[in-house]
Fold this protein.
Amino acid sequence: MNYRLARTPKTALAASLILILGAMSAAHADDGTTFDNTTVSGKTFIDFTNLDQTKNGSDTANAGDGIDVKRFYLTVDHKFDDVWSASITTDFNYSASTGETQLFVKKAWVQANFGDTLKLRAGADDMPWIPFVEGLYGLRYVENTLIDREKFGNSSDWGLHAFGAGDNLWSYNVAAVNGAGYKNPSRSGSVDVEGRFAVTPFTGLTLAVGGYSGELGKDTSNLPNGATRTANRMDFVAAYVNNGIRVGGEYFKANDWNNVLTSGPKDSADGYSTWAQYDFSPVWSVFGRYDHVKPSKDLNPSLKDSYYNAGIQWVARKGIKLAAVYKHDTLQDNSGTNSTKSNEIGVWAEIAF
């Protein structure tokens, strides 16, 4: 007799907790390990801002003052021995614009460590590209990186993950995943693949190339013909992070990302992001960023998204960062009926423990 477990975020959270706690109990019973090898950590992104946003000249429901808890990550890590470990990260967020709170499993994995050059994880884990660029950018709590902000990729997904590094000169990460992202662990008729290879030719400089190919979890069994297209994306990033200087640039090109299930004309997108940050004291820094994206080059070639921010950051103490920031975003085409403009100013915070 076959039993099938409904795949919902709450079910995934419960199953992951049972799996990890069960493994901990088994390890305790077998070899006498204790919970001394278990750590708990957390990170939250909070902002209080004023948003002036219009769509085709009229105010949107999002406009006004508000406080957002954009993310609250709670992580439990456990190390069984030098090879085996496990981790779970929950993702809570609240948005003033929607008035809703949500709870997801962001990451839940079991790892086998075969050395610096090969680590294998099964479950939900960081994807190869977005979290890597976040580390180079350094201001994730202020804004998502380019691919994440424009919704051309996922930061975490369910599947198999392999990664490693050598002599601080090179690193790689490859993932075979369901494709629908960490919020949707459902199955599909195919497996998506994302990969990244990076080199560090000298201290501070990182160069990386990446790519994605798959049906984004939309090739489900209930569709008679399945997905009609394969989405793919190419990524490039170059960044220098050293001696209080952080500067970089990212470029992507994607094909058929938003029309995997469409049999009509093909579509493509591309864009770039540049950023810089300078620490003028041990606790103060200034930063700025500019993004330019064409999200629909074939179906709506005049549609463009231009985004920039500028601000100053204060590291109040270890684990607490505050930033006063101004942001501007314009998405519009030549029709005059597809225009969204946003101006936002306020304080953003990252609290980690």
About this structure: The CA atoms of residues 191 and 284 lie 45 Å apart.
